Structures are given as C-alpha cells and as structure tokens.
Give the backbone structure.
Amino acid sequence: MATARKLFAQNGFYGTPTAKIAKDAGVSNGILFHYFPTKDHLIKAMYFDVKDRIFDYSLSQVYKGATLKESIYTLWLAAVEWYVENPEDFNFMLQFESSPYYSVETEVSHRHTQLTIELMEKGLEQGVFKNIQPFLLFQIMMKMVETTVQYLQLNSELQEDFAFRNGLFEVAWDAVKK
Amino acid sequence: MATARKLFAQNGFYGTPTAKIAKDAGVSNGILFHYFPTKDHLIKAMYFDVKDRIFDYSLSQVYKGATLKESIYTLWLAAVEWYVENPEDFNFMLQFESSPYYSVETEVSHRHTQLTIELMEKGLEQGVFKNIQPFLLFQIMMKMVETTVQYLQLNSELQEDFAFRNGLFEVAWDAVKK
DNA sequence: TTTAAGATCGACTAATCAGTCTGTAATTAG
DNA sequence: CTAATTACAGACTGATTAGTCGATCTTAAA
C-alpha cells in the first residue's frame, strides 16, 4: 500500500499499472492479487488505511478536559499536520474523493468522521455554531484543511509558520461560528 | 465536448474510451483525433471551455455600481447556480482539479480567476478581508462553492431554497472577512 | 469547371494492462 | 512426521484502447 500510495501520487490511479506496484514493492504480480482480489479492492483498502492512520494520530493529540474549540482545533490541526508530513496520503485522498469510489456512506462510516460530527453536534447544542446540519459543518472544516494543505504545498516556506496555520484555523472557525 | 462531459461524469477520464466518445457523439473515431490530437488535448480544451462558459454567465449577472460584497456575492452565487444547473461541468472540474492535468498556472491564467482575484485585492485594500494572500482568499471562496454544490447535489430538495444558499454565502464571507 | 483544402469515415494496430493459472516454497496444525 | 493451508512467484492471456492511415466526400475559391 505504501508503494501504491507513492505511485498513485505520481501517476494517478489509472496511470499506475498493478504490475508496477508489485514490481516496485519487490513482490510478484501474483501475490498482489492474492491479497487484493482487484485493483479496486486495493484502492478501497488504502482509503481506510489512510483514514485509520490519521484517526490514530489525531486521537493521540487531543487531551481530556479540552474545551470544544480546543478539541476541534486539535483535530483540525492534526489533519493539516498529518497531510503536510505525508503528502502521498493527501494526494491519495484528493484523488479518491473525486473518484467514482467515493461515497458519503463510506465517509460517514469511518470513526474519524463520526467523532468530528459528534463534536459539531455538541457545538450546535451549545449554540456556538451557525444553524447548519452537522455533516455540512464537518465538510466545511475539512475543506479548509484541504485548502490549507494545498496552499502549504505550494508555499513550502510557510510550512513551519505556526501563526499562518493558526490564522487559517481561525478562518475556518469564523466560517462556522455563529 | 458535451458528450465527453457526460461520459467523463459517469465513468471518469480513464473509464471513458475515446472510441465511445466519438460513437456517442455520432462522429467517427478519425474526426475526433482530427480536432483533438490526443485525449489530453481534449481534456485540457474542455477545461477552458467550462471556465469560459462559467465566466460568461457570471459576467452577465454582475451589474455596474454594485458594492464589493455584492459583486463577490453575485460571482459566488453565479458559480453555484451554474454548477447546480450543469452537474457534468461540476463533476468534470472536480476530476480535473485533482488530476495531473491541473496546475495553479492554468488556473490563474484564466480571466475568471483573474477577475475574482482582483476583487479580493480590492477587498484587502478596503480592509474588509483578513490579511491573507488574494489567491488564497480566492481559493477559500471557491472551496465554499464546491462544498455548497456538493451538498446541494446530495440534498436536491434544497436546490430551490434561496435562504440556504444565502446562508452558505455568509459562511464563506464570514470566513474571509476581518 | 477545376482544384485544393479541409472534413469525415472506419478499419486497423501496437501496446498496455488487469487478472489468471500453474507450480513451488514456507508455515502451521494434528 | 504428515497434511493441509497459506504465501509467493512469474509467465501468460484476452480484452481494451489511444492513436494511425488511406480513402472518400464537401466546400469554397479561382
């Protein structure tokens, strides 16, 4: 999957032959299809793999007793940092989410999405957010992650600029807050 | 190009053989490659075509003497409406922008982008926006268009809901305003 | 009317690629 | 130790597909 991520980032899903994935990964063609019956299975498995790893990282960052805004900030920043550190993951998700593989159901089915949506619901209860469906609030925040990472990729000198990141979180926060 | 848009929306760039594009368009294989030397040429041409049509529509909506916020609102809403009315255009752009074809240079080279960025610069001068590079302001607004359209596609009963659209523009505006 | 340039056709090809198949090693279970 | 299951290899194939090529038709200018 790591090899596939690298190759997909470079040449896209369709620009990457399964044979090349196997070869670059140092395994045979046969063994690839032994573990992933089709290329589509591989791609879907990779999606959940990325989500899982981001989720684990994010959870390791939030601490108990954090306020709502702090929790959301931590999750938001964790996602940005993860994607900045792991550009292939970012590129993969971008491609995946605008491909026929993606559906809202798969998205919502993941713990990471569910956790974030719960935070949004809490915010709605507390009256800090605009009156918008929680899933949409979630998507607005996530799109800002996307925008931020994309911009940081283009302007790598900003990647260590903490104030810049914080500023963009405030942009996202201002968007959703009442 | 219209046929290709439809097919690309259904099956993606790579899932759509050139032969099928020609056949569905009612022309021969040969004539397709007569006008577009490669599939890539076709795809790039389609990108500029979509951008052009959106630009024309957007300009027809803005009126002289509008305030800055009104102008931006009109452009923003025009983009949303266009994409809601022309889902294949939207789907095509989504795919294009997360494909190897896309680059910031092509994006910035288009009049539509340039016009919007100019408005952002004006807003910065007037001190109404957060102190953020104009291109990034532009991208934040555009991502909100994306989010809005995607949500409207999933919840088609909201497509006639004017208040909903306006609400989401305010979300975008709150994000960038100081 | 002639001629040239562009438009259109559709059969063809060379290459590519997802997935198969057959056989062999390694590991685990009884 | 044996049997069965799982891991692995790599050659092979059938289908697909981007792009070519030579022929024919249409249009417009001279």
Remarks:
- Residues 27-31, 34-35 of chain A lie near DNA strand D (CB under 10 Å from a C1').
